[in-house]
Request: fold
Amino acid sequence: MKVSVGHGLSGAEKRLEERGISRRHFMKFCGTIAAAMGMGPAFAPKIAAALTSDKRPSVIWLHNAECTGCSESILRTAAPYIDTLILDVISLEYQETIMAAAGEMAEKALQDAMKKPYLCVVEGAIPMKDGGIYGMVGGHTMLDICKKVIPGALATIAYGTCATYGGVQAAKPNPTDSKGVDEVFPKATIINVPGCPPNPANLVGTVVAAIATVVDKKPLPKLDDLKRPVVFFGETVHDKCERLPFFEKDQFAPAFNSPEAKKGYCLYKLGCKGPYTYNNCPTKKFNPLDKGVGVNWPVQAGHPCIGCSEPKFWDTMSPFYEEQK
Amino acid sequence: MSGSKPQAIPVTPKGNFSGPVIVDPVTRIEGHLRIDATVENGKIVDVRSSSQLFRGLEIILKGRDPRDAQHFTQRSCGVCTYVHALASTRAVDNAVKVKIPKNATIMRNLVMGSQFLHDHIVHFYHLHALDWVNVANALKADPAKTAALSNSLSANRKETAADFKAVQDKVGALVASGKLGIFTNAYFLGEKKNEAYYLPAEADLMATKHYLDALHMQVKAARAMAIFGAKNPHTQFTVVGGVTNYDALKPERVAEFKALTDEVIAFIKDFYIPDLLAVAGFYKDWSKIGGTTNFFSCGEFPTDEYDLNSRFLPQGVIFKRDIAKVQNFDPKLIKEHVAHSWYVGDKALHPYDGVTEPKYTSLKDKDRYSWMKAPRYADEPMETGPLATVLVAFARGHKPTVDAVNFVLKQLNVGPDALFSTLGRTAARGIETLVIANQMQTWLDALVGNVKAGDSELYTPWKMPQEAEGVGFVQAPRGMLSHWIKIKKGKIENFQLVVPSTWSLGPRCANGKLGPVEEALMGTPIFDPARPVEILRTVHSFDPCIACGVHVLDAKTGKTASFKVL
Reply:
């Protein structure tokens, strides 16, 4: 179903009806979003109110030191699909990977977007060393761009392990002194959605929650002490793992070619970091179609979890193929 | 094709502007790129390609467990995901001298093939198309005529006027809202028409619809890849010694992969290739703009991981566009220059001998102007990527490639010379996609056959040596990628990445020779310096992916051992 709603204008529901989209269909769509957030159907009307509000904010997406895997991950969202998300649900005013404009016209798009209320999504860490010269966009350091955009945002979602905690470039010895957004902007309103890359469902849910917060003055979703939404990051990968019964019976795969590996036994002895990693990979999985769950995730593919959504996992969880000490 | 051919070949309009034209940021790429051009009387007479991000991954890798390298290096790039994981795994496989099971090679090939199919669809529709397609102009199209045009391009298309009207409504709603989102300030917008865009409105509307359709199709292509690769982006199923994914050997998983892949391949044949040919048919003047001189490929899709000559797409080197004389690829001839990069020194060194210290100057510096080094092969700049892969395979008489090239050239009614251009590069990406798509079933059949015959081995045990060296070559969607590892006391002593985008988008070398994208941009006409879409056309035709292009190594010396290159 394609839903085209707010576009910052009033009378959204009437326009939907004119285009043959019934309220029932629209609410079903909102229910999908609520489900994506791990919330009950009662939350759907609040989402509907947020999405059809006149005051729906724009979204500015910044790229810092990163690999663009987080942008790619959001292209894989299926509830809703990306075209619905960026053309109908939010207005994505600046996003270097997919925006049509380039150069000065792109910079102008950013400046214009900042004149209206906006949410900010940040992908990538901020290089701090030597005044930030290791990362530049349009002649400005990423640090300077973040200083201009993040303090004025209604809320900032740090998306991916680089933006949340520094990520791969911040692994020892962190040659460019890269840092996560929260560390550089401790006073900003920040929600962390870590993962390398994260499950896009976790971003869609967080964006919609942030819109609901801004538009309906709802409280922010409940965050843990690392500023992660508890609905997505409240349990460990291990807690929900399909191989947990093997762990509980002490049935482990000792090698990747062992009969136990072929039978799908627990990967803990091969280095799995699931017990130390808070994320919803086993239940959401990756690469879904429509409203279904994803098609696969690392442990199902026989590979140990590397703990990619935890702070400093590149240093604290490695070597990845050894039992955690 | 009859409905798509314009009456006469248009001529790219040229302005009369003289002065600097800087595009920064170059959007719709991976990474941070700046193009600094000097224009005289409407044509580029000087240009610099500058990479704007430095991360230092190779420094980070030193002292770590060699098995972990693939996870770090895969984070070089999330667009061409998997290719770095594969290159690192091959490099360590090579260093520890493990011969991986046949099924592991096939599964790696299937994931790599899926990556090509996904990546090239996204590049054409979502990173490149807006350089040719005017989304705003689509509003002026007649939906019925658009349906007729579209359905004339493939017998399998069944699109209706209502389908195209719905897309017009969607675009119209965006315009009415005053919030254009990702289309804000596009080079096709503005008070005055940008004459550099000249598709008919119906072709613009057709392409706009397929831009949206392809957003859904790429979800399926990535999903297929994840069945074998665990997830996309950033696969997690390779290990030194093979792969781990026994679950994907189940018949129901193979069937799921086949169904998704078949759907993606049908989209490639019925939409991507015909759309590519239709758009190219209107922009034929771009077959004379944006060419380069030298090309090479290490080949891809092996049956024997250590023999470059076992690869389905062949390795080879072409100098001075002479496809009659294709040479064998010799890794010893690679050197990296830093004379015009933000590093100390000016010596050209083999990757293993390189010593590098970052030293940033400024964006105004015309002498040292990029975080990328300038790799050269036999002292020459080399283009790598789909055009190089296709030219090498064509030159070697690789039948699937020869057939696909001849089909495309015939459809466009142009000769082989047209390949040496921006349009040729974009067409070659489609050709490469088609050739790989047609091979997917063969690999899948081989895997299924082995499993039915009782062979479900995916992993060969091995032991970490105290000291070793290895190299892994991957012909990625963006071209030749190599990872070089040196192991000491069981840890990484040195790790080196030589990546496609430094070959294609790096700066000048010590001999003053321009990098390929710089060479390609010379002489390009610019109609409107405020909306220089012509620069984007050629830059995007290389599919820049440059976060991985920037690196530091601190190697001592060494040479490749035990890797059978030729």
Q: What stands out?
A: The CA atoms of residues 4 and 14 of chain A lie 12 Å apart.
